[in-house]
Design a protein that fits this description.
The protein is α/β, with parallel strands linked by helices and about 450 residues long. Helix content is about 35%, strand content about 20%. Among the domains are: about 120 residues, Rossmann fold; about 110 residues, 2-Layer Sandwich (Transcription Regulator spoIIAA); about 60 residues, OB fold (Dihydrolipoamide Acetyltransferase, E2P) (Beta Barrel). The termini are far apart. The chain binds S-adenosyl-L-homocysteine, iron/sulfur cluster and FE3-S4 cluster (F3S). FE3-S4 cluster binds next to helix 1, helix 3 and helix 5.
């Protein structure tokens, strides 16, 4: 008899990517093997995201497709996991009777038990237990050169538009000793780059501060690169900025979402920073580490956003010159304070502002990429490129770099020179051996 198969489909943020991988570890530990697609799998986990309305709707469209019986008449076991499961567990139970297991992001270590229970009826666990799940998870099986490591769960910031504090619970940091052990195990499996994850990762406080954790991880031999995301502008302290100068393994990249360029809107968002304090933080960073690549997130059409407020968002984009940035139309999330604010912005105004913002972001990212032409750096190769012989990897500034290096393979860290720039990628060529010393 062939063993049962599973597939975990991940939506949303990198924290979900980490959780999806860990659910895969749990299912593999039960003797299941990975299937290439949800259609082929016996057990399908949909690890959902609730951040915007469209993200949440994907669960129901996938369930609709996956509940169809397979060619041999058998049906799949469907697990709804993640933030929609947490926020709308009861609604899923009512709207999608074919979902077998509903499990929240803080309870998925119980997945094997819940699957067993589901053999006799639906199993639900959307508790937010005080004892963290991490201790109950098996060892990691990663094989890629770059891995995520969740260092902190939850969020206490309560931005008025955001569901995360409700779906992921209060902000808690994992003990640094556990994280160092998990990182050492990853490096022993060949991982060269670790990205530390948390919704407010720079507020990490698990015995060490984030900068202390980064310095401790930098001691691990074989670990070549450290990154972290997402940071909150309010928690960008001097010790972390100093780490960007003093720890060569810490990559010169910072994702620091501002959301809006208007201090009036930021106040309504409960962001706890202003346009001015945000720009002052960036100035401190750039003074310490002039080459740092900055990225951010933006919301257009937050309730009450006027054309004048939006003009301030456009002007902050022009001023900062982000290497990359992500922009979203404000999406009403039931239960959040902004959902019931007056002056909701019409959809067509949001569409039009989003288009203008994205055009401005593209101008900035192209300028950033052009500014790196001639630089020598390392690239961590991640996947094949479009043309034969091409590989795509990441520069220290998180640009996607396309290179052709005879003999190089995925997972290698190679020395290159950047020779061409597009808005979303750069072109690089190998540095002849013997000349690598200048690479960052
Ligand atoms: N913790 C991070 C990111 C959280 S979610 C932070 O504080 O920045 C990722 C991004 O989704 C946010 O930065 C925000 O830009 C966007 N987002 C969150 N809620 C949203 C909503 N209701 N509508 C549109 N975009 C939203
Ligand atoms: Fe959401 Fe704000 Fe927390 Fe980020 S800081 S996760 S945007 S509430
Ligand atoms: Fe989405 Fe939950 Fe992440 S709502 S963005 S998957 S924390």
């Amino acid at each position: 008899m062939t063993s049962k198969t599973y597939h975990v489909k991940s939506f949303g943020c990198q924290m979900n990517v980490y959780d999806s991988e860990r659910m895969g570890d749990l299912l593999a530990g039960q003797g299941l093997s990975a299937a290439a697609s949800p259609e082929e799998a016996d057990v399908v986990v949909l690890n959902t995201c609730h951040i915007r309305e469209k993200a949440a709707e994907k669960l129901y469209s996938d369930v609709g497709r996956l509940r169809q019986k397979r060619a041999d008449g058998s049906r799949r076991t469907i697990v709804a996991a993640g933030c929609v499961a947490q926020a709308e567990g009861a609604e899923i139970a009512a709207r999608a009777p074919e979902v077998d297991v509903i499990v929240g992001p803080l309870a998925y270590h119980r997945l094997p038990e819940l699957l067993k229970q589901a053999e006799t009826g639906r199993a639900i666990d959307i508790d937010m237990p005080a004892v963290p799940k991490f201790g109950a998870l098996p060892g990691r099986r990663v094989r890629q050169a770059s891995a995520f490591l969740t260092v902190q769960e939850g969020c206490d910031k309560f931005c008025t538009f955001c569901v995360v504090p409700y779906t992921r619970g209060p902000e808690t940091s994992r003990p640094s000793a556990d994280l160092i052990a998990e990182a050492e195990a990853l490096v022993a499996r060949g991982v060269k780059e670790i990205t530390l994850l948390g919704q407010n990762v720079n507020a990490y406080n698990g015995g060490l501060s984030l900068s202390g954790l980064i310095r401790a991880l930098a001691e691990i031999e074989g670990l070549e690169r450290i990154r972290y995301t997402t940071s909150h502008p309010r928690d960008m302290h001097d010790d972390l900025i100093a780490a960007h100068v003093e720890v060569p393994k810490l990559m010169p990249y910072l994702h620091l979402p501002v959301q809006s360029g208007s201090s009036r809107i930021l106040k309504a968002m409960n962001r706890a920073h202003t346009r001015e304090s945000y720009l002052a933080t960036l100035a401190r960073l750039r003074e310490a580490r002039p080459d740092i690549a900055l990225s951010g997130d933006f919301i257009v059409g937050f309730p009450g956003e006027t054309e004048a407020d939006f003009a301030e968002t456009l002007s902050i984009v022009a001023e900062v010159q982000y290497a990359a940035a992500y922009s979203f139309k404000y999406s009403v999330r039931p239960g959040t304070p902004a959902a019931t604010m007056a002056d909701q912005v019409p959809e067509e105004v949001k569409d039009e502002r989003l288009a203008r913002l994205q055009a401005a972001i593209t101008v900035g990212s192209l300028a950033f990429n052009q500014g790196t032409i001639g630089k020598r750096c390392t690239v961590l190769l991640e996947r094949p490129g479009r043309k034969p012989g091409q590989l795509i990897g990441k520069t220290p500034w998180l640009q996607s770099a396309v290179v052709s290096i005879p003999g190089a393979k995925i997972g290698d860290l190679v020395d290159v020179e950047i020779v061409g720039a597009m808005p979303n990628s750069v072109e690089a060529v190998p540095i002849p051996s013997g000349q690598e010393s200048a690479a960052a």
